[in-house]
Amino acid sequence: MPPFFSNKKLIILLASLIVLVALVGFSIKERKQMTWPEQFVHDTVGWFQVIFNRPAQYVAGFFETIDDIENAYKENKALKADLEDYAKVKQENKEIKHDNQELKKELDLLNDPDLSAYKKHPALVIGRSYDKWNQLVTVNKGEQDGIKPDMAVITPDGFIGKVRKAGQFSSEVILMTDTRNANQIAAMVQGSRIYGMIEGYDPEKNVLLFKKIPVKAKIKKGQMVVTSGLGQIFPRGLPIGKVKKVTTDQYGLTKIAEVEPAANLNDLTHVVIVEREAGTPAANNLDKKGDKS
Amino acid sequence: MKKVKLFLILFLLFIVQGTVMTVFSPEWFGYHIPMIPHFIMVTVLFIAFFVNRGQALKYGIIFGFMIDLVYTTVLGVYAFCIGLTAYILSYLTKAFHMNIYVVLFVCMFGVSLLELEVYSIYSLIGMADQSFSNFVKWRLPPTAILNGVFAVIVFYPLRRFLETVETDSSEE
User: Fold this and answer.
1) Each residue of B70-123: pLDDT tens digit?
2) Is residue A275 part of a domain?
3) Number of residue pairs across A and B with CB atoms under 8 Å?
């Protein structure tokens, strides 16, 4: 039996360690654009991923449907009760929208960008990183469909993450449960105007940390947290989650709220990529790099 | 021809790891058990046992790098770890006769070793914030079991196939 690590092998091991460190350093830098080999691999693999993922999702969806049938009667009852209010709410909504438009006209605000306006790009999830360290999802829309890095990604239930890199025909979405703080989201409490930042995620409790809330703010359990649109990347009003618990930070200067995500991040098939219509800094002045939202 | 087939098998597993296995993961059904499929690692170990070390290293690095590109944000970690694990464990072929029990055990050990290496590198760069005891308690056992089951299922067909690859490459 030859010696376990001869001199030559030791040198190769050390050299590959150096290459590893260089590669890690290279990829930790936040790059927005994919290099062409990356794009090539992503798009080729993406094509195969569609073939495998669609049948799997259909089968999984079938089992879910069986589950759903059991609940259908109960749900139907609840939905019917909701529906009675729906017509009324719709009329009210129309009236309020009209009033709002009129008032804006009087104030000469009509041409100002609307923070909550956005365009939707529906997309399919075609792959997902399987080790739990990376919270990445691949979707089947890319630059050819108008997807750009930093766009918000939502499901009907709420916000789930943002586009990290866009390839030609597929793009990589980083979920807000990624622990590396890559997703700092400017957020606010719906209704009351309490602003703060979503920073970080606690995987053991499954909560997002809503930080930098003024210490005097009256924030309560059960309130809805939405994006504020002030980070200049995401539109306003995308639901993020419900407040679960409120504490003060270690210095007692600001409050920290634990927010339970509204969207189920384990069960992703159809997502919507959201393009904000009000200008983003990246679009307004191309030479300046946009702030992280 | 056999090499192309081997490449296709590995590519298939690479796709399955990120699509079918994430759809049918325990999380999808609402259980929080982290079962991580490392089928590429298991197959590369099979190559190391039944073909030779150089081939295992080659495929380990190629597919490790593809995993890095497609499923992670940091390049090089899986390429390095899969290559290193397969290389170290390939020395066991000299000490043991590779029957199904030994292979099962070594595959579970290899996957745990890979998980440990990736965990330590990711902890260094701040991507993994699970505590070590939680990692060992909650993440390693289900992962090892899942990949052990995979190793047992593919053992006979894959061994037969790989032995033909070996004769193929020795004739060249």
Assistant:
1) 898 888 899 999 999 999 999 988 888 888 999 999 999 999 999 999 999 999
2) no
3) 116
Mutate to test the interface with B, among A43, A68, A131 (most CBs of B within 10 A): A131
Number of domains comprising chain B: 1
- Do A126 and B15 contact (CB within 8 A), yes or no? no
Question: Domain range holding A246?
Answer: 185-261
Q: What is the pLDDT of residue A75?
A: 84
ipTM over 0.95: no
* Interface touch A133/B125, C-beta < 8 Å: no
| Banded model confidence at residue A181, pLDDT cuts 50, 70, 90 | low
pLDDT given for residue B38 in this prediction? 93
Highest-confidence segment of A119-133, A166-180, B16-30, B100-114: B100-114
Q: What does pTM read for this prediction?
A: 0.82
Give the residue from B10, B15, B19, B40 with the most A CB atoms within 10 Å of its CB, the best one to mutate.
B19
Q: Which residues of B touch A48 (CB under 8 A)?
A: 11, 15
What CATH number does residue A202 fall under? 2.40.10.350
Q: A91 CB contacts (<8 Å, ≥6 apart)?
A: none
Total count of domains within chain A:
1
Q: How far apart are CA B17 and CA A9, in angstroms?
A: 31
Q: Which residues, other chains included, contact A270 with Cβ-Cβ below 8 Å and sequence gap of 6+?
A: A122, A123, A124, A125, A155
Residue range(s) defining the domain that contains residue B87? 40-161
Q: How far apart are the C-alpha atoms of B46 and B98, rounded to whole Å? A: 10
Q: What percent of chain A has pLDDT over 90?
A: 10
Select the residue of B34, B37, B74 nearest A28 (Cβ to Cβ).
Answer: B74
Write out the two tokens for A288: 């300046």
Give the model's pLDDT for residue A290: 41
Backbone conformation region of residue A260, classed left if phi is above 0, alpha if psi is from -120 to 50, else beta = beta
Task: Tell me the residue length of chain B.
Answer: 172
Q: What was the pLDDT predicted at A293?
A: 40
Number of C-beta neighbours around residue A190 at 10 A: 16
Q: What are the two backbone dihedrals, phi and then psi, of residue A256, each rounded to the nearest 5 degrees? A: -120, 130
CB contact under 8 A, B20 and A4: no
For residue A119, the cross-strand partners are A275
**Collapsed DSSP state (helix, strand, coil) of residue A164:** strand
Residue B136 DSSP code: I
